[in-house]
């Protein structure tokens, strides 16, 4: 089938299902969900990211959406919690008549059978996706994540010119993740250990023969009724080919489940419209972040080495250390009140403040859930005492709990920052929160001077280019 036919089928599918969204995604943490939001919005799709499946009343106030997402915290959940959470999301997406249901995972696929299981997600969401194809997209080249012959590789390092590529089970950070260390690089085996028994690999050589040959190979694989097909990804041309497969199968049959990082959204957007890649570049040129108009607060709960580099490079901020043991200890409420006061005072005086958990947290991995909740409580106190228009949160789990604690209901795309980081606009029923600009970033994302970029916006980017 030609690309033009795929695009026509996708357009026919949209007309068939009315004006409702044709693409829905669940982000297993907030930072990754905002990256997917950015890719869809920059491809020209009107997209909103919610903190819970929206009801009809909320949707009616927003007008027509091409895509929507739910930012969740499934990567921190037990299998039973995941099943309950994703059953609700899957049912809500199915009721909207979406054609593609995307379970958005971290680009490093870090997960485990007992926490944040991708296998549980696939089994739960398949109940709402009768399409024979469940597609797992294995890489995201713009973040230097690659999947070749089913094995996952990822870059490490703060400087693009000094980054090395590691097999994920030898990655200096992800192989030692405090909650879900990656000890297996073959994603078929990784998913099999999480209960997805029959995962077949479509390797990169299949793309070179053209769309017709690729579709024939996919149909041949589907004849054996696999639980999922894993697609290699080495470059953007591979995403284009995969996107055409997803769009074709979503248009001709029941709703389709796709699993992967934001590369799923990239692939699908490219398949929907040949101009999407051009629109991507155009959006980067014209949608920019203005310099912050007031003090900026950054809360860094991430323990990654890259975030540590970014903290050290944040020269425009007053830095406030947060002791994870005291944040989660018997006198936590008193400690948080003291730290909140140390933060809000300088913010009121117009200074930028960066609060960060110290590396002692590495020795308290079992207390990480309590630490993320403590970070959320701290953020709520700070924003209750200082009126801010721009904030940043570093750490996937920290972001998920902290933003939920604010009581807002959604995010829309505002502007990009480099290396997979997005600035969004917060939507809330409370006037003091509505419209706040918020950056959410995972531990492995962003340039070394990311927090400085959050202050300077496009002015800083122009200075770097001169």
TrEMBL record:
Residue ranges constituting the Four-carbon acid sugar kinase nucleotide binding domain according to the UniProt record: 298-451
Signal peptide: none
Keyword vocabulary terms for this entry: ATP-binding, Carbohydrate metabolism, Kinase, Nucleotide-binding, Transferase
Domain Four-carbon acid sugar kinase N-terminal: 24-267
Keyword Kinase: yes
Recorded superkingdom: Bacteria
Family named by the database record: Belongs to the four-carbon acid sugar kinase family.
UniProt protein name: Uncharacterized protein YgbK (DUF1537 family)
């Amino acid at each position: 089938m030609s690309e033009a036919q795929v695009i026509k089928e996708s357009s026919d599918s949209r007309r068939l299902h009315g004006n409702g969204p044709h693409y829905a995604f669940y982000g297993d943490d907030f930072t990754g969900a905002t990256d997917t939001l950015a890719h869809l919005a920059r491809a020209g799709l009107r997209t909103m990211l919610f903190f819970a499946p929206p009801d009809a009343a909320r949707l009616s106030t927003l007008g027509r959406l091409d895509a929507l997402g739910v930012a969740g915290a499934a990567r921190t959940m037990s299998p039973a919690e995941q099943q309950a959470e994703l059953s609700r999301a899957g049912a809500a997406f199915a009721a909207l008549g979406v054609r593609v249901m995307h379970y958005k995972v971290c680009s490093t696929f870090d997960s485990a059978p007992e926490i944040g299981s991708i296998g549980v997600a696939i089994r739960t969401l398949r109940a709402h996706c009768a399409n024979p194809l469940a597609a797992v997209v294995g890489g995201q080249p713009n973040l230097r994540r690659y999947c070749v012959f089913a094995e996952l590789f990822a870059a490490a390092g703060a400087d693009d010119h000094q980054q090395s590529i590691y097999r994920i089970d030898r990655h200096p950070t992800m192989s030692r993740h405090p909650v879900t260390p990656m000890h297996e690089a073959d994603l078929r085996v990784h998913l099999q250990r999480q209960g997805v028994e029959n995962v077949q690999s479509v390797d990169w050589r299949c793309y070179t023969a053209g769309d017709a040959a690729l579709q024939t190979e996919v149909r041949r694989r589907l004849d054996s009724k696999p639980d999922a097909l894993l697609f290699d990804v080495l470059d953007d041309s591979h995403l284009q080919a995969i996107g055409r497969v997803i769009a074709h199968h979503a248009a001709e049959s029941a709703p389709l489940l796709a699993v992967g990082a934001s590369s799923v959204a990239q692939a699908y957007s490219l398949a929907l419209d040949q101009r999407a890649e051009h629109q991507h570049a155009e959006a980067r040129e014209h949608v920019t972040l203005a310099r912050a108009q007031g003090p900026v607060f950054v809360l860094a709960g991430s323990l990654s080495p890259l975030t540590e580099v970014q903290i050290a490079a944040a020269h425009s901020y007053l830095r406030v250390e947060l002791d994870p043991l005291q944040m989660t200890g018997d006198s936590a409420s008193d400690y948080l009140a003291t730290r909140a006061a140390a933060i809000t005072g300088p913010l009121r005086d117009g200074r930028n403040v960066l609060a960060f958990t110290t590396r002692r947290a590495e020795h308290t991995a079992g207390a990480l859930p309590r630490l993320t909740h403590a970070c959320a409580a701290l953020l709520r106190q700070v924003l209750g005492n200082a009126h801010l228009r721009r904030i940043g949160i570093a750490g996937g789990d920290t972001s998920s709990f902290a933003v939920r604690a604010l009581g807002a209901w959604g995010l829309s795309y505002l502007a990009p920052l480099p290396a997979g980081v997005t600035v969004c606009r917060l939507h809330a029923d409370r006037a003091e929160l509505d419209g706040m600009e918020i950056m959410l970033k995972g531990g492995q994302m962003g340039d070394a001077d990311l927090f400085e970029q959050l202050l300077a916006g496009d002015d800083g980017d122009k200075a770097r280019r001169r």
